[in-house]
Design a protein that fits this description.
It contains 15 helices and 28 strands. It is α/β, with parallel strands linked by helices. The chain has a domain at 278-496: Rossmann fold. It has a 6-stranded parallel β-sheet, sandwiched between helices. The chain has a 6-stranded mixed β-sheet with strand order 15-13-16-18-28-27. The protein has a 4-stranded mixed β-sheet with strand order 3-6-7-8. A hairpin with a 5-residue loop joins strand 25 (441-444) and strand 26 (450-453). Helix 1 (37-50) runs parallel beside helix 2 (90-98) and helix 1 packs across helix 14. It starts with 23 loop residues before the first strand and ends with a helix. GO terms for molecular function: ABC-type vitamin B12 transporter activity; catalytic activity. Catalyzes amidations at positions B, D, E, and G on adenosylcobyrinic A,C-diamide. NH(2) groups are provided by glutamine, and one molecule of ATP is hydrogenolyzed for each amidation. It comes from Thiorhodococcus drewsii AZ1.
Amino acid sequence: MTDPAPSISIDMPPLVEHGPRRARVLMIQGTASDVGKSMLVAGLCRAYHRRGLVVRPFKAQNMSNNAAVTLDTDAAPGPNGEQPRGEIGRAQALQARACGVRPSIHMNPVLLKPQTNIGSQVVLRGRVLGNCPARVYHEMRQGLMPAVLDSFERLCAEADLVLVEGAGSGAEIYLRQCDITNMHFAERADIPVVILGDLDKGGTMASLVGTWLLLDQADRDRVVGYLVNKFRGDFSLFEPACETITEITGWPFRGVVRWFEGASRLPAEDSLALERPAETSGGTLNVVIPRLSRVANFDDMDPLAAEPSVNLRWIEPGHPIPAEADVVILPGSKATRTDLGVLRREGWDIDILAHVRRGGRVVGLCAGYQMLGRMVRDPQGIEGEPGETPGLGLLDIETEIGGEKRLIDLEVTDQRSGCHVSGYEMHMGRTTGPGLERPWLVLDDGKGAVRHEGAISADGRVMGGYLHGIFGADAFRTHWLEQVGAQAARIDFEARIEAALDELAEHFEANLDLDALLELAR
């Protein structure tokens, strides 16, 4: 007899009464994961925003360890009146940026952050509910629908157009009954759906027709057409396939999106993007990152990848950390102790220690920072089985995971470098130890508050801290690169993302009939 599965209670956030819907709505569902739904919605958000519409993105449920801090939450203000922060998927944060607005918890009311192969941390409207096995979540998630619909209607009340993104495939019929993010949500919200297929994956015709075949008649009737994404070459060769798809399904062909070369300049949604071959820059500084099993917030590396002097590589399991590496970065993780086990299983711990003995540098970000210490304890089993795991011992610190999740965004100055620093913290736990007497950063908010962040070794070659996004601060990135002997290109990273969003919008204007798509929204 097995023990009963752990469960979490749903502390339902405040719901409000909604009047007639103001916004028109269009939903984008895909034939599979990673077909380009997030980027399509981001580009459409920017395109319609540039046309003067008030646009909002929405994704009922996202599964990702790439999260962003929001300024709003359902939590009560703190004792000093400070507003607690929330968190949503970074894909929806990028889509909010495309709309010219701050991200909101209502844009992604349910966020699942995988911690094991069969369980996730569940975040409802920015607040952690707890950890939940997949089977238990499958049984409980219909209870989340009222909060999901409430968030959706709140966005509809403030916008001219709401663009809804589905999750994975819309034809996972074994999930249909308790679905809160694809066809069941579309039915409950009564919104039209466009299906997106991916030509780059191959099998586009089969995936679109297969989607139609698996849907029941009511769901088929909700679909107002399909789009074909990531096309390269002569589209006239594929036109007969479109005619056949329409003949079989009855769904009108709504256009083709040609391959967008600027996609690499936009943050990727999830770790599927790391499985593609890396484009080496030919740079002189070799930066490597071990691909951990529960890697989180990996877009921390994007600003470094944009630097021509940096040759950035993710090291896959089964491959050693190369001896020619100049810098090893340990990224964030949703399961610190589990990924310490991955480091040891792959022999990466030995490689990192040898790298340090050779005079190499190591940077740890968030969970990666915790791994650099002497010990990581999780007495409550927040990230898995309760227990403790020795760290790499490169910093004289220890971490105990637990307590309230710390969510904060920062705009400060590092007193040591004199550089402006921006970023965010998103972690549970407290780090202590003598190593903190040598902080990596000394942060000044300009209002008299100064605090130490992270730790750095006596020789200055091993450093880490909790601040995500730190390399996105241009002045600090330039300073750091010069410290490690590389030449910085002085890229305005935020302007680079804005330019890529504008180019994406222009790409869609040139490739799609945006007036016709807007007419489909209702």
